[in-house]
């Protein structure tokens, strides 16, 4: 009975504020959702009479975003769903002189504009900033804006991971890893996705979940600098995603697209939108099938087929000039074969990931300067991992899993713009229900042999089970794990089973103010987080940032401090936290008893600048320094896609991220991103299934000295033919599993051949591999830096994958038949990894495994837009 009362109390504590906010929202709905903006205005003549039929146009020269409207009978216009940015607004009307004004749409409160037109030929009153100031943003948080026009032309490398790829290519501080993983500013997957104000802090890599397709995305703001008080939980990178909407379109629009390329990769997409001033809907359905769905542990894919299907729908209802009702629906599935390597050709392991989400939104505007926003949501990820039909086909172990992440909550805030203040106060309440079922058994008799012979070889005789190893020709195996012995299927053991459920309750409250004082913009805020899961913790989090606009030189200087509350990853949190205690009291996998993974805290400092070079080029750079107590990462289970969260005692991260962008210069447009990160982690480690015991300090595999992306595009007028070139450079992530030449000599023959291992100029072959006893004065690898035996230093000279340059090229047209209307055929041909570079993301990493870059791939695309 006490258990029931406790669960009832927990449910009430979550549902009560949710219900109150929902009831409030039912009486007051509103404008553009989330942090997207709304620009409203009226066009009048000098006498104050409204002007009908005036053409109003807004544009951003850096992102390329633009939108047009025509004033109605009351002389009004409205732009909805505007990405937060500065815009150049222009009004033209017959018999009147043009009117222009710079408008900043940052924040969800509608921006009001009155355009007063002068009679053509008379004096006009024009409010225009200097050309350079059109490019910069007076904002203390470093961020990158990515518009749909940029997203669509990026060459597609990773099936079903277009969102991850757009983030990797768009920001300088992100290190690329396999299977859609990326490391933002030295962290592993510490990303908060905010989709139309719905926060999603769980993993979005395709081996964990499913991603929103690019066909549904209008724009993104990628915050890599100091987070404001509104955001928490995972704050290394905040991806604010704005989806496409049909509201206000006044026409039917959409597209039908198909792509086919190397590895039998086929992609299809259908998008359809429609709407008027009162109602709008946008629908997109996408499907992908590929023979190289995941990044593989060998150069060529083996057992790597996969498919992905997504359905997205957004509905908007303008109930009144001040009231909007919104609904996002999303469902998706990934069905994936787990790639094999040459040492495990017989495996047939697979996984399935299913996701669905329901996210309504309500807004109401009071007195044109106060906006109430309420966003309840429900989302579920279900992950299933299937072993081979014959369990002994799996090596060195077989494993199965059924894991659920079910979360629901509400994010609500009240925004007030008055004078120099842009104030926001809000709450973020959610519950995540975890269910984890896991099975495991050893299938390789050499993996945990009880005894070994006098040459150090494991004894595979299933009758040898006495750890004393007193039999003839036997000696003790120093690596034998008694905790694994009951689950060694080769010696009469049985499968290990784990099943557990738990709820994670999180409550956050925040208040922040953006204060404009002359050329200064000051962000001050406070956030409070409370976490109730396997452990309970909470913390206040002050945030402050300042930006100063030097208008004469078109320069913005900024600095910020953030205190953040970090929460553990939810995926496999229960099993990982149980390692060594409770159901795993026998120290399975050799892990020692430890408390559950604790929440952490971080102190973060940022300093940076923006500089416009004339009216064509924008330079943005930011320095970050982060100290974290309880720094999170994942450990991978052997050769699977099953990973477990772990926490290190602390981490010290610092580096630089930046971007150089041009405006559209007669069809030419380019950007160059760059980043440098030092990621130093300190033990001890908590959680996981396999104990990791590094030295006092080490560079984790998030550490990369330098990465950059150059994206260059030229397009002929009227959206005709275009050419796009992308250069990606990565200096190489740290390799944790093979620290030096001595460790490489212990690899299997296939693994030695895979990395191109040589000793004193002689290369390993499958028939003649090296052994730990081989003479190797100078060892080399074609794919790893591989320090010589005894010279490796986990902090100053770790092993890394070798640097790589990857080139992508695409040629196409957005108007194949050079049509005059909106109905157009599009076509393109793309080549990724143009030079067929052989390279690794990582190799035998204890945190992510082995993944090769995709070899050269060619794809053709054809579609119709209207």
What's the β-strand tally?
Answer: 44
Distance between the termini: 61 Å
Number of helices: 6
Largest sheet: 22 strands, antiparallel, barrel
Mean pLDDT: 89
Oligomer: single chain
Low-confidence segments, given as residue ranges, are: 1-30, 123-130, 580-586
In helices, the fraction of residues equals: under 10%
Supply the helix-strand structural class: mainly beta
Could you tell me the strand content as a percent range? over 45%
The whole-angstrom Rg is: 28 Å
Give the overall form.
globular
Give a structural overview.
The protein is globular. It has a 22-stranded antiparallel barrel. It is 6% helix and 50% strand. The protein contains 6 helices and 44 strands. The longest helix is centred in the first third of the chain and has 25 residues, at 2-26. With 866 residues, the chain is mainly beta. A hairpin with a 2-residue loop joins strand 37 (758-759) and strand 38.
Name the descriptors:
866 residues, mainly beta, 22-stranded antiparallel barrel, 5-stranded mixed beta sheet, globular, disordered N terminus
List the helices and strands and how they pair.
Layout: H1 2-26, E1 37-45, E2 55-59, E3 66-70, E4 76-82, E5 85-92, E6 99-105, E7 111-117, E8 143-147, H2 148-151, H3 162-170, E9 174-176, E10 182-184, E11 191-195, E12 198-200, E13 217-223, E14 237-243, E15 253-261, E16 265-275, E17 279-290, E18 306-320, E19 323-337, E20 350-366, E21 370-386, E22 397-418, E23 421-442, E24 451-452, E25 475-476, E26 496-517, E27 520-532, E28 536-550, E29 555-566, H4 573-578, E30 600-613, E31 617-636, E32 643-662, E33 668-687, E34 698-699, E35 704-715, E36 721-730, H5 741-745, H6 749-754, E37 758-759, E38 762-763, E39 779-780, E40 804-813, E41 824-832, E42 840-845, E43 849-852, E44 857-865
Parallel strand pairs: 1-7, 11-14
Antiparallel strand pairs: 1-4, 2-3, 2-5, 5-6, 8-13, 9-10, 11-12, 13-14, 15-16, 15-44, 16-17, 17-18, 18-19, 19-20, 20-21, 21-22, 22-23, 23-26, 24-25, 26-27, 27-28, 28-29, 29-30, 30-31, 31-32, 32-33, 33-34, 33-35, 35-36, 36-40, 37-38, 37-39, 40-41, 41-44, 42-43
């Amino acid at each position: 009975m006490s258990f029931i009362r406790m669960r009832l109390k927990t449910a009430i504590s979550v549902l009560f504020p949710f219900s109150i906010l929902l009831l409030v929202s039912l009486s007051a709905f509103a404008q553009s959702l989330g942090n997207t903006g709304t620009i409203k205005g009226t066009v009048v003549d000098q006498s104050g009479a409204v002007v009908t039929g005036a053409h109003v146009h807004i544009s951003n020269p850096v992102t390329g975003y633009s939108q047009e409207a025509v004033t109605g009978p009351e002389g009004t216009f409205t732009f909805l769903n505007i990405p937060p940015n500065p815009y150049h607004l222009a009004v033209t009307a017959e018999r009147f002189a043009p009117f222009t004004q710079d408008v900043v749409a940052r924040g969800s409160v509608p921006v009001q504009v009155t355009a007063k037109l002068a009679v053509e030929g008379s004096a006009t009153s024009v409010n225009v900033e200097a050309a350079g100031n059109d490019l910069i943003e007076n904002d203390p948080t470093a961020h990158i804006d990515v518009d749909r026009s940029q997203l669509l032309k990026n060459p597609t490398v990773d099936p079903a991971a277009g969102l991850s790829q757009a983030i990797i290519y768009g920001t300088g501080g992100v290190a690329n890893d396999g299977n859609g993983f990326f490391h933002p500013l030295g962290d592993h997957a510490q990303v908060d996705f905010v989709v139309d104000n719905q926060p999603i802090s769980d993993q979005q890599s395709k081996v964990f979940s499913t991603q929103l397709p690019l066909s549904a995305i209008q724009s993104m703001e990628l915050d890599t600098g100091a987070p404001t008080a509104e955001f928490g939980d995972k704050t290394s990178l905040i991806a604010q995603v704005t989806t496409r909407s049909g509201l206000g379109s006044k026409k039917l629009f959409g597209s039908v697209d198909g792509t086919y390329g190397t590895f039998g990769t086929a992609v299809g997409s259908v998008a359809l939108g429609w709407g008027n001033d009162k109602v709008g809907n946008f629908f997109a359905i996408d499907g992908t099938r590929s023979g190289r769905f995941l990044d593989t542990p060998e150069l060529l894919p083996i057992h790597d087929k996969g498919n992905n299907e997504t359905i997205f729908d957004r509905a908007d209802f303008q109930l009144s000039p001040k009231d909007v009702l919104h609904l996002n629906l999303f469902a998706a599935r990934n069905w994936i074969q787990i790639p094999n390597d040459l040492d495990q050709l017989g495996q047939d392991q697979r996984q399935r990931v299913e996701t669905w989400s329901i996210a309504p939104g309500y807004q109401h505007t009071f007195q044109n300067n106060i906006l109430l926003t309420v966003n309840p949501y429900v989302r579920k990820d279900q992950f299933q991992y299937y072993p081979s039909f014959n369990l002994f086909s799996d090596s060195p172990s077989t494993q199965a899993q059924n894991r659920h992440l079910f979360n629901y909550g509400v994010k609500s805030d009240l925004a007030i713009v008055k004078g120099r203040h842009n104030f926001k106060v809000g709450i973020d309440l959610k519950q995540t229900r975890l269910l984890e079922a896991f099975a495991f058994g050893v299938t390789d008799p050499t993996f945990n042999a009880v005894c070994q012979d006098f040459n150090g070889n494991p004894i595979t005789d299933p009758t040898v089970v006495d750890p004393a190893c007193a039999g003839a020709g036997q000696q003790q195996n120093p690596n034998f794990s008694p905790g694994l012995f009951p689950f060694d299927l080769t010696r009469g053991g049985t499968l290990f089973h784990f099943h557990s459920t738990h709820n994670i309750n999180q409550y956050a409250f925040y208040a922040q103010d953006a204060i404009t004082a002359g050329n200064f913009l000051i962000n001050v805020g406070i956030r409070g987080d409370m976490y109730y899961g396997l452990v309970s913790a909470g913390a206040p989090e002050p945030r402050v940032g300042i930006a100063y606009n030097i208008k004469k030189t078109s320069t913005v200087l900024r600095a910020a401090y953030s205190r953040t509350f970090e929460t553990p990853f939810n995926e496999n949190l229960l099993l990982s936290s149980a390692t060594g205690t409770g159901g795993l009291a026998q120290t399975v996998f050799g892990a020692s008893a430890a408390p559950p993974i604790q929440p952490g805290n971080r102190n973060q400092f940022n300093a940076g600048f923006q500089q416009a070079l004339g009216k064509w080029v924008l330079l943005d750079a930011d320095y970050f320094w982060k100290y974290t107590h309880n720094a999170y990462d994942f450990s991978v289970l052997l050769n699977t896609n099953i990973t477990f969260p772990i926490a290190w005692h602390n981490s010290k991260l610092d580096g630089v991220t930046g971007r150089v962008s041009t405006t559209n210069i007669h069809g030419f447009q380019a950007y160059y991103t760059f980043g440098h990160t030092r990621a130093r982690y300190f033990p001890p480690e908590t959680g996981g299934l396999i104990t990791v015991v590094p030295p006092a300090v080490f560079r984790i595999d998030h550490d990369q000295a330098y990465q950059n992306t150059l994206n260059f595009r030229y397009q002929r007028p009227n959206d005709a033919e275009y050419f796009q070139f992308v250069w990606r450079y990565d200096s190489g992530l740290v390799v944790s599993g093979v620290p030096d030449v001595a460790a490489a000599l212990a690899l299997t023959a296939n693994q030695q051949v895979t990395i191109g291992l040589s000793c004193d100029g002689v290369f390993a072959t499958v028939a003649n591999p090296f052994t730990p006893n081989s003479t190797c004065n100078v060892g080399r690898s074609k794919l790893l830096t591989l320090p010589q035996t005894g010279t490796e230093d986990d902090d100053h000279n770790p092993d890394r994958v070798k640097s790589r340059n990857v080139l992508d090229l695409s040629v196409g047209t957005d108007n194949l038949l050079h049509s005059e209307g909106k109905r157009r055929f599009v076509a393109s041909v793309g080549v990724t990894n143009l030079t067929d570079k052989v390279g690794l993301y990582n190799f035998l990493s204890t945190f992510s495994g082995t993944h090769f870059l995709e070899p050269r791939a060619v794809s053709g695309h054809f579609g119709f837009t209207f």
